[in-house]
Design a protein that fits this description.
single chain; about 350 residues; mainly beta; four-stranded antiparallel sheet; about 0% helix
């Protein structure tokens, strides 16, 4: 709490005003599985409930964050012994679905409500994104050969399109909209970020350059009316890109002391924020318009933060994080999603 001292009629008057520094906090107990690996996390809303979907070893768990308890049994097809390191949530045929993958095994598609496997496809690597294009449910993922695959989930096991251009493995992929078109954004070994027109099946514009090492994470969102991507790199920085202009916005976001492994976008107090997770074991929250870090780093994980997600719980913006070798998923309260009313 800050104190302002003013002089009125020869008297000193002290008035307390709220401190503008955000106060982030850990919510509840860490979520743990039956193995020592927490590889991924995502968040969704279903029937008015905020659900965390977490990957522990080769299993997927669903947690009701309002109740603080797990829902049903873990999703486990019994056919995989590889650790899951990629999760995505979406919809197909009117029902919520979860995609899980890792270790070169087929990506499994699960019905969120029943926990039943409803499909799979082969060829994904360490990232998966789900979305809707022309009424179809699609999945996008990069592979180790430098390709971005686009799957129509109702059409079978083979990809509709393989987008080529990256020189080396694609580590990150995300979906978004640009000028009314469905696009994918990817990043990888060649240190570049690329945009893809999924309807035309080709790259949009030039590669986006600036990172000095591998690009491990990308997320797509909106900032002041612009469609942006935020990328995280082994060089320890995040960069913000204006996708329509094909250029970087502002300076790199610095603070992490090791690889940035994950990034997610959201709203906090009316501001567009990014939440990043790093090999340094911390999460950081960034005000993208101001180009600066908000508050102190979020600490508690004892291993690299492999995956982050942003959602809402009871009107508050929350972040979720998966701590890889420490075996836990954690939930963090960041504050109200919108600015308080002055009325």
């Amino acid at each position: 709490m800050a104190v302002i001292v003013t002089v009125a009629s020869g008297l000193f008057v002290a008035a307390s005003v709220p401190d503008s520094t955000p106060s982030f906090r850990h919510i509840g107990k860490p979520i743990a599985g039956d193995t020592g690996w927490a590889g991924a996390v995502t968040v969704t809303e279903s029937n008015g409930r905020t659900l965390a979907i977490s990957a522990h070893g080769d299993q997927v768990q669903v947690w009701d964050l309002s109740l603080g308890k797990r829902l049903g049994k873990a999703f486990d097809d019994g056919r995989s012994d590889a650790f899951i390191d990629a999760l995505a949530v979406g919809s197909m045929n009117g029902r919520k679905i979860v995609a899980s993958g890792g270790g070169g095994d087929p990506v499994r598609i699960w019905d969120l409500a029943s926990g039943e496997e409803v499909g799979n496809f082969v060829g994904a690597s360490s990232s998966i994104a789900l979305g809707q294009s022309n009424g179809k449910t699609i999945a996008v993922s990069g592979d180790r050969l430098g390709r971005v695959g686009v799957w129509h989930l109702g059409a079978g096991r083979l990809p509709d399109t393989m987008l080529t251009g990256h020189r080396g493995a694609v580590y990150a992929a995300a979906l978004g909209q640009l000028d009314g078109r469905m696009i994918a954004v990817s990043g990888g070994f060649d240190r570049t970020v690329r945009m893809w027109d999924l309807t035309a099946g080709k790259q949009l514009g030039n590669e986006l350059t600036g990172h000095t090492d591998y690009v491990f994470a990308v997320a797509v969102g909106q900032l002041n009316g612009k469609t942006i991507a935020v990328s995280g790199s082994k060089d320890g920085t995040l960069r913000v890109w204006d996708l329509a202009a094909g250029e970087q916005l502002g300076d790199p976001l610095t603070g992490h002391t090791a690889d940035v492994r994950s990034v997610a976008l959201g709203m906090l107090g009316g501001k567009t924020i990014a939440v990043s997770g790093s090999r340094d074991g911390t999460l950081r929250v960034w005000d993208l318009a101001a180009g600066e870090q908000l508050g102190d780093p979020l600490t508690g994980h004892t291993a690299e933060v492999r995956s982050v997600a942003v959602g809402r719980l009871d009107g508050e913006t929350i972040a979720l994080s998966a701590g890889s070798d420490d075996g836990t998923v954690r939930v963090w309260g960041l504050g109200p999603a919108t600015e308080p009313s002055n009325r």
